[in-house]
Design goal:
heterodimer, A: about 190 residues, mainly beta, three-stranded antiparallel β-sheet, about 40% strand, B: about 190 residues, Immunoglobulin-like, five-stranded antiparallel β-sheet, 10 strands, elongated
Chain lengths: ~190, ~190
């Protein structure tokens, strides 16, 4: 009889101990945690400082020159990543009668550039920031800079510049002409 | 002669049992009459004190960036809070702290950001009776920062009231590509 009583008492105690307090289960607790997960992927961005005016020094058909300043932001994937900054003349010089990238009035007239700049601020392995004497095109994107794996710019961005040279052909009619160059940055 | 004496003794014994049994049967009646009534009252007392609890909507909050040009990473953590503050002089709060910094290394960090200005900041949205933090606030691994405050005699509903933390994490190009995780601990208190 006593043995049965003791066994029953023990079972009751265990049941009570294992039963959660209903209020606690319903209303949470004084602290809670959550994990913040973020996946950092390859990204790239750039800004162009301002309109670039090409000018010629003197009056004897020295080529028109000017430069475009860029600020680039890049993060390429570790091991296999790559990236580039390219340029393309997306709108040829207008109005007609002046220089033209697609249909220059004289063979050899060209809009060329030489690029240079700062390597990515953190890990620049594989980065090429300078390309010299590149002829701009209305049909193809041409390299301004290329990047290797795990290249990362600084938070404020790194600088790159494009020094333009436009043939000063006497055939050009006097006047003001404008073209649009589109720079594209990409990262993988 | 002896037999007759024994019969007499048995009779005496039986006679002595009868009053005893009668007394036994009567005693409950006497008890009910003298020691109680048909209705009783009992006082039940409870002390309701200031309390607080919370639940976090999901065990993980994913921060994402829209686009590919270094837009900040954003995400939202939902909370449900339960609170009761003292009716005179009571207060309460919800606070958070980054208890485990982003890992692995090479990516974002709350404790040692790779670039000055890189932060994990947040805005607060808290339903009444809570007052949301005045954000954006920068989270910390060393101190608790406010999510909500409560005043005197504030009460949530029984099913809890809602709050949310809207995260913004700097997207620094310096971060090495990969996945990173941090742990944020929320604390609620009431007095």
């Amino acid at each position: 009889m006593i043995k049965r009583f003791l066994v029953a008492s023990a079972l009751l105690a265990i049941t009570v101990a294992l039963t959660p307090f209903p209020a606690n289960a319903q209303l949470g607790s004084g602290t809670g945690t959550t994990t913040l997960n973020v996946t950092v992927g390859a990204e790239a961005g750039l800004t162009v400082a301002a309109t670039s005016n090409l000018t010629s020094i003197g009056t004897n058909f020295t080529s028109f020159t000017g430069s475009t300043a860029l600020t680039y932001y890049i993060r390429t994937t570790q091991s296999t990543g790559a990236g580039s900054i390219t340029a393309k003349v997306t709108t040829d010089f207008a109005p007609v009668g002046g220089p033209s990238v697609a249909t220059p009035p004289t063979g050899g007239d060209a809009l060329t550039y030489t690029s240079s700049g700062a390597v990515p601020g953190n890990n620049s392995t594989g980065a090429v920031m300078a390309f010299a004497g590149v002829t701009a095109s209305t049909t193809a994107q041409t390299n301004v800079a290329t990047f290797g794996a795990d290249n990362r710019s600084v938070f404020a961005g790194n600088s790159e510049s494009v020094a333009w040279t436009l043939t000063n052909d006497p055939k050009y009619k006097t006047g003001s002409y404008s073209a649009t160059v589109t720079f594209t940055i990409s990262a993988t | 002669m002896k037999i007759k004496q024994g019969e007499n003794n048995m009779k005496k014994l039986k006679l002595s049992f009868i009053p005893a049994v009668a007394l036994l049967l009567m005693s409950p009646l006497g008890y009910a009459q003298g020691l109680g009534t048909t209705t009783v009252t009992n006082q039940v007392s409870v002390t309701v004190a200031a309390e607080a609890a919370l639940t976090v909507g999901a065990s993980a909050t994913t921060l994402t960036s829209v686009g590919t040009n270094f837009s900040d990473y954003t995400g939202t953590t939902l909370l449900t809070y339960f609170i009761r503050t003292t009716n005179t002089g009571g207060t309460g709060f919800i606070k958070l702290q980054v208890t485990t910094d982003f890992a692995p290394t090479g990516g974002p960090s709350v404790g040692s950001a790779p670039t000055a200005g890189d932060t994990l900041s947040y805005m607060c949205s808290v339903s009444s009776p809570g007052t949301p933090c005045s954000g954006p606030l920068t989270s910390s691994i060393s101190t608790q920062t406010s999510v909500a405050t409560f005043g005197t005699n504030n009460h949530s509903t029984k099913t809890g009231n809602s709050a949310s933390v809207l995260w913004t994490l700097s997207n620094d190009p310096l971060y090495v590509t990969g996945s990173y995780t941090a742990v944020v601990t929320y604390t609620i208190s009431a007095s």
